[in-house]
Design a protein that fits this description.
The complex is a heterodimer of chains A (110) and B (119). Chain A has 110 residues and is mainly β. Helices cover 0% and strands 58% of the residues of chain A. In chain A, the strands form 2 sheets. In chain A, strands 2, 4, 5, 9, 10 and 11 form a 6-stranded mixed β-sheet that branches. Chain B is elongated. Classes of the chains: A mainly beta (110), B mainly beta (119). Chains A and B meet through strand 4, strand 5, strand 9 and strand 10 of A and strand 4, strand 5, strand 9 and strand 10 of B.
């Protein structure tokens, strides 16, 4: 079963624009992570935010977490064609099991 | 290359046959995960190992599925009597879990997956 749902399911933007995708989850969490998946490949870890954190930055990535609303957002600034991929949020509760959302498919048009 | 490797990359089989996939995690990683992913969906958790112990199994893992990690290093996932519904990408991931570990311990490192097609 999927713990999280990403919104939108698909997003198409021009190179240089910002991309925002959202994740909602169902139960209390310990950490929330974002991963990227290029077509037909494995997933690559992007960023982790702990449940006691509200915002985190890494390069062109900004993640926010609102535990009261059980939601997170991932912002990619100044997007590039190479950012074209699917993006998944992943959560874990108090144990090692990591559960992924349904994903947002991002297309960045050069 | 010291990443997670999976073998084979692609497997085509006929319904009713048995298949086995192998995953070699990053060498110092003590946790190993198996996920299944169908087109347009996120990875679905199947099972995970802490060293050689299988600590959690999803209800998705029917009695036709079995996973092992005999020496706490590589792992195999076997599907017996395959069905067309088993067609999916099977992903393996590993992580390093330490008692006083930091954020890096929480990251999962994925292999490129095994794409299974059951005809």
């Amino acid at each position: 079963s999927q713990q999280g749902e990403e919104d939108p399911q698909a997003l198409s933007i021009q190179e240089g624009e910002n991309a925002t995708m959202n994740c909602s989850y169902k139960t209390s969490i310990n950490n929330l992570q974002w991963y990227r998946q290029n077509s037909g490949r494995g997933l690559v870890h992007l960023i982790l935010i702990r449940s006691n954190e509200r915002e985190k930055h890494s390069g062109r990535l900004r993640v926010t977490l609102d535990t009261s609303k059980k939601s997170s957002s991932l912002l990619i600034t100044a997007s590039r064609a190479a950012d074209t991929a699917s993006y998944f949020c992943a959560t874990d509760r108090l144990g090692p099991k990591v559960t992924f959302g349904t994903g947002t498919k991002l297309q960045v048009i050069p | 290359d010291t990443g997670v490797s999976q073998d084979p990359r692609h497997k085509i089989t006929k319904r009713g046959q048995n298949v086995t996939f192998r995953c070699d995690p990053i060498s110092e990683h003590n946790r190993l995960y198996w996920y299944r992913q169908t087109l347009g969906q996120g990875p679905e958790f199947l099972t995970y190992f802490q060293n050689e112990a299988q600590l959690e199994k999803s209800r998705l893992l029917s009695d036709r599925f079995s996973a092992e990690r005999p020496k706490g290093s590589f792992s195999t996932l076997e599907i017996q009597r395959t069905e067309q519904g088993d067609s999916a990408m099977y992903l393996c991931a590993s992580s390093l879990a330490r008692v006083a570990g930091g954020e890096d311990d929480e990251k999962l490192f994925f292999g490129s997956g095994t794409q299974l097609s059951v005809l």
